[in-house]
Specification:
The complex is a heterodimer of chains A (429) and B (157). Chain A is of the alpha/beta class. Chain A has helices at residues 18-23, 28-34, 38-48, 60-65, 89-96, 98-112, 126-141, 172-179, 208-220, 222-226, 259-266, 291-296, 301-306, 325-339, 345-362, 369-381, 389-403, 405-414; strands at 75-80, 116-121, 157-162, 203-207, 236-243, 249-254, 257-258, 276-281, 289-290, 298-299, 315-320. Chain B has helices spanning 6-18, 26-36, 43-53, 57-66, 86-90, 93-103, 146-155; strands spanning 78-83, 117-122, 134-136, 139-141. Chain B has a four-stranded mixed β-sheet, with helices on one face. In chain B, helix 1 packs antiparallel against helix 2 (26-36) and helix 2 packs across helix 3 (43-53). The longest helix of chain B has 13 residues, at 6-18. The chains are: A alpha/beta (429), B alpha+beta (157). Chains A and B meet through strand 3, strand 5, strand 11 and helix 14 of A and helix 2, helix 4, helix 5 and helix 6 of B.
């Protein structure tokens, strides 16, 4: 069953406006937060067990506590560069509930004592950016942003920044580079952004969903928030479901929910009565699960990690029995090759080779030993670069190839897809 | 010679003051140039921006070439970007793009002869529950079929 905290008012057209938001209790939590001490808010977030909802799953309260007490200006950056393929939860939140994000951000900024925040929105999200900007203007006008907010003496300015088409800017240090007006290339860590981030100042980078969740943790208290989800993965999470199901879309579920129940219940089952073949959980970077594994999987950080994959951004792609895994890997490998920023050799060269090797299968140039070569290249790309894009390119290969090796062998031997058959002929670009 | 409109110049000047560093104004300024220059950014536009912003051309070029949303050559009146990442590819956007190219006698990434369209395959645009989808200029078009998409494109004036 869905638990609607963040998504409760998504269907209300007025919720994106300030009057509509206030009618549903909007900005009341901000008043409550201002009556707390900043460290009480940090402790509440820590106690809630909230983990980053962008993909890495790092505990939010702990991230905040890494800020040094050196009197330097602190920045809060909201990561709205939603680029992980098949993820569309943050866009929907910005379009339907922008004030919820803004309120969560002001509370967070107050907690970490930050005078300035940016919402870094991917360039393609033109409409979402417009909605968010309008909401920020409304919040300024109502005195929720700017100088001396609600007479508390706390001052906070907020602005949006639009990216221009680069997956890598979703990586927090890449985002910082981009905001600084540089190429969006990631920076070596440490120093972590909390210590030295935007303009070398202490910076907290949190995902849209994470910052919105802060509002509910403060509104209801950590204990109430922890009632949802499992012990190690508390709270609710937004899942973006796409692919071969009857009702794809965004679903807010308690963490620990059974993946198969999401498919059969919320998503209305498999489309056209086809059989489930595989699921990519957590964005295309996450290793694939086959149908037997899906039966056992629960949607939380621990279970999916134990199964050798990850919860990631919460995007879930459902594939039925008609899907050719060689073809799917081709699409995925092309993506990472296209998005590698070119800074580190293992990634720049490796993503190219992965894509080339998979394409070779379609061009009839591949030999059976190339299957092992594909895995060898992927293995050599892991953990050797400044950021995780290289791993993100390698992991899908290491998930798909061993689990569906027969399809790769068949394609190389016969020259056509085992699943699609001969008539389908050569595949696309 | 390309030159921004008076409002365009004002926009760039205000962006230079909007952020903590003037270099942060490069991306928004490039968007502005693209908007005023039929959807793409030319070398002379970069030179113009460099003068206006007092930032070296090489520095602007570095940003310009890194991001995919800045077009390096002229595009049609309608830049049709078809998502061909996983969910959309599963929903048939690669075949749909082939049909667009055939129907409008276009080459991928090149303007059609009447300068009306440029078709480009792009990566995930974050509307996967509405696959197949595409973006025409700033707007998303979702839950398409090849027929409905071709008709939509044909109806564009």
């Amino acid at each position: 069953m869905e638990i609607k905290l963040l998504t409760e008012h998504y269907q209300d057209d007025q919720y994106r406006t300030l009057p509509g938001y206030k009618a549903k209790g909007g900005y009341e939590t901000l008043s409550k937060a201002f009556k707390m001490k900043p460290e009480e808010i940090v402790n509440e977030v820590k106690a809630s067990g909230l983990r980053g909802r962008g993909g890495a799953g790092f505990p939010t309260g702990m991230k905040w506590s890494f800020l040094p007490n050196n009197g330097e200006t602190r920045y809060l950056l909201c990561n709205a560069d939603e680029g992980e393929p098949c993820t569309f939860k943050d866009r929907m939140m910005m379009e339907r509930a922008p004030h919820q994000l803004i309120e969560g951000m002001i509370i967070s900024a107050f907690a970490i004592n930050s005078p300035k925040s940016y919402i870094y929105i991917r360039g393609e999200y033109v409409y979402a950016a417009k909605v968010v900007k309008k909401a920020i203007d409304e919040a300024y006008e109502a005195g929720f942003l700017g100088k001396n907010i609600m007479g508390t003496g706390f001052t906070h300015d907020m602005d949006i920044y639009l990216g221009a088409g680069a997956y890598i800017c979703g990586e927090e240090t890449g985002m910082i580079s981009s905001l600084e007006g540089l190429k969006g290339q990631p920076k070596l860590k440490p120093p972590f952004p909390a210590v030295q981030g935007y303009l070398k100042k202490p910076t907290i980078v949190n995902n849209v969903e994470t910052l919105a969740a802060v509002k509910y943790i403060i509104r209801d208290g950590a204990a109430a928030y922890k009632k949802y989800g499992s012990e190690k993965s508390p709270g609710t999470k937004l899942f973006s479901v796409a692919g071969d199901v009857n009702k794809p879309g965004n679903y807010e579920l308690p963490l620990g929910y059974k993946m198969i129940d999401l498919i059969n219940n919320e998503c209305g089952g498999m489309k056209n009565g086809k059989k489930l073949k595989a699921v990519i959980p957590g964005g295309t970077s996450a290793p694939i699960l086959n149908a037997a594994e899906v039966e056992k999987a629960t949607l939380d950080y621990e279970c999916l990690a134990q199964m050798g994959t990850m919860l990631g951004s919460g995007s879930i792609v459902i594939m039925d029995e008609t899907r050719c895994m060689v073809d799917m890997l081709k699409v995925i490998s092309h993506f990472y090759h296209h998005e590698s920023c070119g800074q580190c050799t293992p990634c720049r060269e490796g993503t190219g080779w992965l894509s080339k090797l998979v394409n070779g299968i379609f061009e009839g140039k591949a030999q059976l030993k190339d299957i092992d070569l594909l895995c060898e290249v992927a293995n050599k790309m892991k953990g050797k670069t400044i950021c995780a894009l290289s791993d993100a390119a390698a992991l899908p290969v290491l998930g798909i190839v061993p689990k569906f090796r027969d399809e790769f062998e068949f394609y190389i031997r016969e020259g056509y897809s085992k699943i699609k058959g001969k008539s389908h002929g050569q595949m696309h670009h | 010679m390309f030159e921004l409109s008076a409002e365009g110049k004002e926009f760039v000047k205000s962006e230079l003051k909007r952020y903590e560093t003037i270099e942060s104004a490069i991306i928004p300024s490039l968007y502005r140039v693209q908007k005023e220059n039929d959807g793409w950014v030319s070398d002379e536009a970069i030179a113009h921006l460099s003068q206006l912003m007092n930032i070296p051309e090489a520095r602007i070029n570095e940003v310009f070439h890194f991001y995919t949303m800045f077009n390096k050559k002229p595009v049609g009146k309608y830049h049709v970007q078809v998502c061909c990442n996983v969910a959309c590819a599963m929903a048939g956007t690669r075949e749909m793009t082939d049909e667009f190219l055939r129907h409008f006698e276009a080459e991928e990434g090149e303007m059609t002869r009447d300068k009306k369209f440029t078709f480009t395959r792009v990566e995930c645009l974050g509307a996967c529950d509405k696959a197949p989808m595409m973006q025409i200029n700033d707007d998303y078009y979702e839950d398409l079929t090849t027929d409905s998409a071709v008709k939509l494109l044909k109806d564009l004036k």
